[in-house]
Design a protein that fits this description.
Blueprint (H helix, E strand, L loop, with lengths): L19 H25 L1 H28 L3 H7 L2 E5 L5 H12 L4 E7 L1 H12 L2 H5 L9 E6 L5 H12 L4 E6 L1 H43 L1 H9 L4 H44 L11 H26 L6
Antiparallel strand pairs: 1-3, 1-4, 2-3
Length: 325
């Protein structure tokens, strides 16, 4: 009797093709899991984490406050321009048509933000109201005041161009004299340039401090987990897989520190806005201190996260490759 052939089984490992969608889904789930786990580990050590978050928040608050101050100075730009305005005194007896024609010409020139015309009659009426010399002015045979065109140069205009505009207007036959407060313009531009430079320098120094603080914190975390990292590498973990939790730790440090910095800025604005408005009212101004805008707050938050990530990446890059099983 012939024997039957034995059936062979296909048991064993087999290859499967994984779609790109499944790979992206698995990659996203893995990153989500690592992000949640790193946050939970930070919350299990609230004192140490809070100290790092506060250092980051305070480091960001100072340049953020100066940034908010510069933003508020933009509200006063019109007043700054008026303070650095150029008074163009017209020839005595110049008729209104020629004065209006000159006004239109000035408005079309470069580096002119605004221009307004004050007639001789208006100037005399304003002087009568402000001086209290109405009876004496009535004794004059004619109006001694000329018409004036008040020119407000563009705040960002180069100083040499503004002075050149004044020199050009002096040569016009319809103009008697031009008065320009050049010293005020020099002080204004110097103050704005200095303030902007201070913000950048201070921001760069404090950003470096944040990178160093986060980097040192991650270094200590790596040092406390050396044995764990060696075991993980022994079972086949790659450097990318090992450094991922540390990078997310840096992101969490930056994110929470940025949020705390924004809270500190809001609290500071609430404390200062009232006295600033009271002081402005004493000077007859309606100036109101504005909080940090949404766009600036978003930049502050993203910048904090980037600095946290850079600090953690720098520390991991320096120390992780030294740990080998």
């Amino acid at each position: 009797m012939a024997s039957k052939p034995l059936k062979t089984s296909n048991a064993g490992a087999s290859a499967h093709n994984i779609s790109i969608k499944d790979r992206l889904s698995g990659w996203g789930q893995q990153h989500q899991l690592v992000a949640v786990e790193t946050l939970m580990k930070l919350l299990t050590k609230p004192l140490g984490s809070a100290m790092t978050w506060l250092v980051i928040a305070i480091s960001l608050t100072l340049p953020g406050a100066m940034w908010m101050t510069l933003d508020n100075l933009s509200q006063l730009s019109n007043r700054f321009q008026a303070s650095g305005s150029m008074n163009v005194y017209l020839q005595p007896g110049l008729n209104e048509n020629d004065a209006q024609a000159l006004l239109r010409e000035i408005r079309t020139r470069d580096h002119v933000a605004a221009a307004s015309y004050i007639s001789a009659t208006q100037a005399l009426a304003e002087f009568r109201d402000s001086s209290g010399l109405g009876d004496a002015l009535d004794l004059l045979p004619e109006n001694p005041l000329p018409g004036v065109i008040v020119v407000e140069p563009d705040l960002g205009a180069p100083q040499n161009d503004v002075k050149g505009l004044a020199d050009t207007l002096k040569t016009d036959g319809r103009v008697d004299d031009v008065e320009l407060d050049a010293a005020w313009l020099d002080r204004l531009h110097a103050l704005l340039a200095l303030s902007e430079r201070i913000v950048w320098v201070l921001g760069a120094l404090l950003a470096l401090a944040i990178v160093l603080v986060v980097g040192n914190t991650i270094r200590l975390s790596i040092a406390s987990r050396v044995d764990e990292i060696r075991v993980i590498k022994l079972v086949g973990a790659t450097n990318a897989w090992v450094r991922r939790p540390f990078l997310y730790t840096g992101l969490w440090f930056g994110l929470v520190g940025g949020l705390l910095s924004w809270v500190l800025l809001v609290v500071g604005w609430l404390l200062v806005s009232g006295p600033v408005e009271d002081l402005a009212r004493l000077y007859g101004s309606e100036f109101e201190l504005q909080p940090l805008g949404a766009g600036a707050a978003l930049v502050l938050l993203l910048g904090a996260m980037l600095l946290g990530w850079i600090g953690s990446w720098w520390s991991v890059f320096r120390h992780l490759h030294q740990i080998e099983p």
